[in-house]
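Quick question: what would this complex look like in 3D?
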Amino acid sequence: MEIKFPFQDELIMIERKTLKDIAKDLKLSVSTVSKSLSDSYEISESTKKLVQDYAEKHHYVPNKVARTLKTGKTNTIGVIVFNISNTFISQVLDGIHNGSQAEKYDIIIMQSRDDIKLEKHAIDVLRMRGIDGLLISPVAFNSNIEQLEALQNSGIPVVLFDRVNHEIKTHKVGIDNKVSAYEATEHLINSGRSKILHITGKNIGVAADRLLGFKKCLLDHQIPFDTNLYLECDYSKHDEIENSIVKKLNFLKSQGKMPNAIFGATDDITTLTLGILAELNIKVPDEVCVIGFSNIRIPNSLNPSLSTVVQPTEEIGMVAFNKLVEIIKSKYPIDDFETIELNTKLIPRKSSMP
Amino acid sequence: MEIKFPFQDELIMIERKTLKDIAKDLKLSVSTVSKSLSDSYEISESTKKLVQDYAEKHHYVPNKVARTLKTGKTNTIGVIVFNISNTFISQVLDGIHNGSQAEKYDIIIMQSRDDIKLEKHAIDVLRMRGIDGLLISPVAFNSNIEQLEALQNSGIPVVLFDRVNHEIKTHKVGIDNKVSAYEATEHLINSGRSKILHITGKNIGVAADRLLGFKKCLLDHQIPFDTNLYLECDYSKHDEIENSIVKKLNFLKSQGKMPNAIFGATDDITTLTLGILAELNIKVPDEVCVIGFSNIRIPNSLNPSLSTVVQPTEEIGMVAFNKLVEIIKSKYPIDDFETIELNTKLIPRKSSMP
DNA sequence: TTGTATGCGTTATCAT
DNA sequence: ATGATAACGCATACAA
């Protein structure tokens, strides 16, 4: 607890100086001060030095809000993701942040929680606040398409990342989900497993392609797709994911349809599954092989070490950011959009190798 | 690749409407429109409806930048953390975000990378941009104290979280690091281990108290503190952490001073250590027990399951945010600062129970 | 080389 | 009930 001295109650508030203040103090005009601080060639060296020193001494910082209002440039980009504490997402954000460091852009992050209404709200807030561009990993393949297109049409470019199957026409940065899923599935089949449970998230943008790759691989190996061996978790209710996996496994067990492998379509699902199997005393990989999309930093610390499809997370963020800035800086509207697909790495470890 | 139709080159840019635009369109004055949109009692119902419908139809969104310039309220709070993709931090950010949802505040996140200069830069950027308050987990116990105090004195409240041993006088939200570390250490001793390697981060705010608790516990159990069994990792060079742990362990092994337990002082250190021990083929917990601070979501999926000191991450974020908003909203300067210490949970699992 | 004037989009005060 | 005007802090075209 603090001891309160009555005389300390009068706090000294240091007011932030404006150009006008400096001008008055120095008996100069506002524009001279403004030009001096931006090192304009119009101003004499002596005056510039005078002003700059004075500003320095008084800790002058320009008011970005006013500057933004004047110039129309916010030097801010908005980012919308479903959940910042998700392993995959936080790594992508890291990449975006690294990119922004060099380019002097500020980043405002909003969460959609995989809820279309919250996503709309996030877009509205960013629009009101003013951003120079938007990076978004959308909730679903057509979520808030009107809002996003309106944003684009009003001159604020949008770049998609991660969930690139959204219908909107713009630049997209992600991975080839179909191929990556195909390879992981084939790895399980090559390990001698064919009863593979596919666990994925409901309504999420990458799920469809990953399922396609999965099914295609089964087909190519003449394995029929069993609808029982498929589970969609509701990603917007994060705590429910674990429950639904447990329920599914118990159901399959009771039906005598226990799988001998599991394909996890997302980061959370894959790592959670491993923990659940441990709790249920199901031996990995002896009874059930596990592989899945995952960017967990410590796959080797898992029990057993987890086979993963690793995405170049930081790179996705960095590339998406750079693409966005490129569009922002280009004066002419771009109508030739490209989808950049970065490479994943399939890393087999013990969980998939019986 | 897109097929390019020449006639589509003329993109239709939808301009964002301003109050002035609406006023002109409706042949009203700007003030009437403004008041109508804020549902002022001064305006007749019919005019209000006219304006509101028109605004709705044309997707009018107020320009927050202009509003901020006018009102001085940014409705934005800044957050400075060392790394957003750190497990612990991203969970705290989640808590902050949840709090902000209800309160209609935007969040701008900046990273310090545990570098004092970058921290200063982050503070400057936020100050320029304009924020109503700042949440910060500072780099060190006295980092940028001048800047932070200047911020406070200029009327922008600062609330510390996580690393609460900073010298600045303000509200702080964290945990009792000394007690938590003491309990974890005692747990190791009770498991029969006394050669405990303490691994921590260099210059980080929580390290000192955790070390104090650790040493106090050794003292109370008449175990001398061996300076060989102490390692500081450079947190600002994140990739180096793993190397330095490996080097330390190899060194101790070569000296015949192998510890029989490890105390990890941070999230990253603790989980990384487990993986490193697995790679070095050191049996946990038989040869070396492990316990440490960690908020990893899947401690049970680790090999072996990891004993942890769990912090109430989301709560830390939420409480810090609410405290900050409380100060922002209170008209009178506060000089009676409190440090809120939330409770941790010690959860013993297999890694510490031989 | 320095100064004056205007406007960015809002809100608020003061007319009408 | 509605409108005219000023001000927030900055940048800039234009004068001097």
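Answer marked as accepted. The CA atoms of residues 9 and 295 of chain B lie 52 Å apart.
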